[in-house]
Amino acid sequence: MRRLLSLLILLFALPATAGLFDSRPSSTLGGLNNSADFLPVREAFRLSLVEATPEQVKLRFVSAEGYYLYRHRFQFKTNEASVTIGEAKLPAGERKTDDYFGEVEVFYGVLDVELPVQNPNDLPFTLQVTYQGCADKGLCYPPETESLEIGDTSASNTALVDSNSSTDHAAELSWRSVALFFLAGLGLTFTPCVLPMLPILSGVVLRGQTGGARSFLLSLAYVLPMAGGFALLGALMGVFGAELNLQARLQSPWILVPFALFFVAFALAMFGLFELRLPQLLTRRLDRLAGNAKGGSLIGAALLGAVSSLLVSPCVSAPLAGALLYISASGDALGGGLKLFALGLGMGAPLILFATGGGALLPKSGPWMVSVRNTFGVLLLAVAVWMLERVLPGPMSLALWGLLAAGTAVFLGTLEFSAKTPWQKLAQLLGLALLVYALAAWVGALQGGSDPLRPLPRTPSIVDGSVTRATEGWHTVSTPAELDFQLDAARAAGQPLMLDWYADWCISCKVIEREVFADPQIVPRLADYRLIRFDITDSNPEQRALLDRYKLFGPPAILFFGRDGTELAEVRVVGEIDARQFAERLNRAETLL
Length: 593
What we know:
Elements: H1 2-12, H2 41-44, E1 45-52, E2 56-63, E3 67-70, E4 75-78, E5 84-85, E6 94-98, E7 102-108, E8 110-118, E9 125-131, E10 133-135, E11 144-150, H3 153-170, H4 175-189, H5 197-205, H6 213-244, H7 246-249, H8 253-270, H9 280-292, H10 298-311, H11 313-328, H12 333-357, H13 368-388, H14 394-411, H15 422-446, H16 466-470, E12 474-477, H17 480-492, E13 497-502, H18 507-515, E14 530-535, H19 541-549, E15 557-561, E16 573-574, H20 579-592
Parallel strand pairs: 12-14, 13-14
Antiparallel strand pairs: 1-2, 2-8, 3-7, 3-10, 4-9, 5-8, 6-7, 9-11, 13-15, 15-16
Helix pairs in contact: 1-13, 1-14, 1-15, 4-12, 5-10, 6-10, 6-11, 6-12, 8-13, 9-10, 13-14, 14-15
Pfam family, one: Thioredoxin_7
InterPro entries: Cyt_c_assmbl_TM_dom, DsbD_gamma, DsbDN, DsbDN_sf, Thiol_diS_interchange_DbsD, Thioredoxin-like_sf, Thioredoxin_domain
EC number: 1.8.1.8
């Protein structure tokens, strides 16, 4: 039953399994102390000039990890009357649906923009590029405008240098991701399709002799070509995947649904419903090639390693396909190659261990192998649900997460009440938690919920009219003069002041307004404050200067001022925050007043 416990632990993290294939972090609610938790706007979004001709200008945006740009906020203008800028050519972005802001299209990672230009006299001109983006952690930047000199040789060279530095920035490796790919490869080793490589390694390459430096070198020569093949595939996908914009092209239901069914089929094979094999004609030829290869030599071992990677392809093709989709979005050839190289090394590590120390260093075959196989089956089903989330209504996707959790709970024996071992009892007890989650997901789906991490949608309490009271007492200002007037009035009255930075385009601001300021536990605690909301929707120069004055990048942000008009900097909030954390900030502010 230990195998069942491993599945249970896995299922608790199921809604987050997409993180293996999704490079961006999930948006989380959390209080942040200051703006240092976020990048300055021009580090979060790096703009560079890639190419400039009389007919076209090509720009490149590189968004830092966890930051995204809005499609509808791009603007391109020129100061030269004789130069005309056509409609920008952008690839398809990713759809984001928000309860507060509606449906938007955003871009993560590397974005290339092509601008048709009519410049018959080939005159130098200034291109003004306006864009706006947000951080997944909850900060929205005001619209930003940058100027690029087109046609000036020195400026173009500088822009190309910036482009290279931006590309280098995008190619920075996440060693944690590399480690995760290695662990994934290690897990794939213990599947029924990969374990047959052991007798090939032992009988043909090592000729029955294990242990010692010679066996280590031969096994390494056997494993490295296999990992190298994966690395080449990852590098190619990193180069051409971003160029083809595969992640955007795969948003069609005609593509996503067959891919999801593909993962479901491989999951069923992992569960043992049927067996995946290469066609017999191809298998016989590969076996013949492996048998004719010269064993005991480094070249022969390398050849066998390359051939053996084809033999195991039916079992690893589904996880490999998901990994390639993940890599294709990065545009990072080096990172993609290293990650899949790590995957291959993970698959080969137990083989090297076996060759060096013999079978005594490897765990014996047994029921635990079924656990590994079933674990990968559950992961593949989770990937299928994750893909279907993009084409199915949110409530239906949430219901599928509940179905997967309930199915795993049943597999764990939660509904079986026969005599059980202590491990089985523990699995049954923990499986009940999965059933509770499944029921919550189904109830939430019926109520229109869509978030698997919070299956039961919360609605603001209206007890004692708290929602109504939450909207009362707020003074909205939009100019520095109006804000200074409110600060002076609060100081003259000896009243503490709370300043909320807000914008209509700030999704997180609306979350805070509805879920924090309207919380029935928070509303009465704000009664003693002068409540000021600064509306920075227009993002004009005066408002941007005010952001600089308070060392802020954009909303949401909440500042507290004491009775003497001095800001309580240690309790300022930048980014999203939930009601519990905001209550803690209020406690700290009260001790300073």
